[in-house]
Amino acid sequence: MKKKVTTLGQFIIEKQADFPFSKGELSRLLRDIGIAAKIVNREVNKAGLVDILGEVGEVNVQGENVKKLDVFADEAFISALSSGGECCAIASEEQEEIVSIENLVSRDAKYVVAIDPLDGSSNIDVNVSIGTIFAIYRRTSLSGCGTNEDFLQKGTELVAAGYIVYGSSTMLVYTTGRGVNGFTLDPSIGEFCLSHPNMTFPEGGNMYSINQGNFVHFPNGVKEYIKWAQEDDKATNRPYSLRYIGSLVADFHRNLIKGGVFIYPPTAAAPKGKLRLLYEANPLAFIAEQAGGKASNGFKRILEIQPETIHQRTPLFIGSREMVEKTEDKMLKYMATEVK
Predict the structure, then answer these.
(1) Which residues pair with 111 in a beta bridge?
(2) End-to-end CA, the chain
(3) What CA–CA distance (Å, rounded) separates 146 from 42?
(4) Which domains does the chain have, with CATH numbers?
(5) Higher-confidence residue: 221 or 104?
(6) Rounded CA separation 135/115 (Å)
(7) Among 80, 161, 70, which Cα is nearest to 118's?
(8) Backbone angles phi, psi at 223, to 5 degrees
(9) Which value, in Å, is the radius of gyration of the alpha carbons in the chain?
């Protein structure tokens, strides 16, 4: 007996009834993102065959070298969201200012989208998994084409969030606040198909993801956690395994599937952290909580942080609930020691 295949489009339509305030706009917006993801996936898969790898000789607002695929992904998502008509403004990692969509259809759109079009771009040239992260907020402005204030909302106000992993298979994972579901792209039919329904973090994870090469620059609380994670203790399933890809999406996705914690702490060089709150930490925190996990800056729930700027940075501790809480305990213990 053949198993029923549910495509992303079918799933979105079926779940549309969960949003009595929506008349289909959010459903269409999510489908627009899915279309752009397919376009980016096509280019990622042939990147080694065409002149699309490497840098374009520019630096983005984050001070990072812009890769050719970064530019392509940014343009693809902006184009799809602009033509879809359900989004009035976009905040992208690759754009210093918000992109207002000024066509007549989009001016009255209900939503704004914050997006990292291509996360982990340092891995592009070495054929390692990369991804896209997106966050959807309901606009707060009453007219025009979107404002900065539309984006400067706490993560608790998120309407939907998700990510796409471009790896051995391409997956789109998203939540609208009613659980987390994952869809794998079937290249034979060109559709994302439901493959991971009701995703949750496994209890008792035993992997931690951190750039341990920067150990000397970490806060003492993080150093203490790493030492604790490396101790031999069968009762707590230690030592833990260190797994670090260097692509936030890929590391988060693996930990969601297998159980683990991702840590990007503050350092002496980056005391406010390096990951962006609006379009990296917030959407993944929303997904993590919907999947039974937790996300923190070490001391405070990520979704409760009030953003002040579009490209605001934050430390991030995210993953299986118990593992995140353990890192928080170590951070708080360190802070208490310092205060004394």
Answers:
(1) 87, 138
(2) 67
(3) 31
(4) 8-196 (3.30.540.10), 207-339 (3.40.190.80)
(5) 221
(6) 6
(7) 70
(8) -60, -40
(9) 20
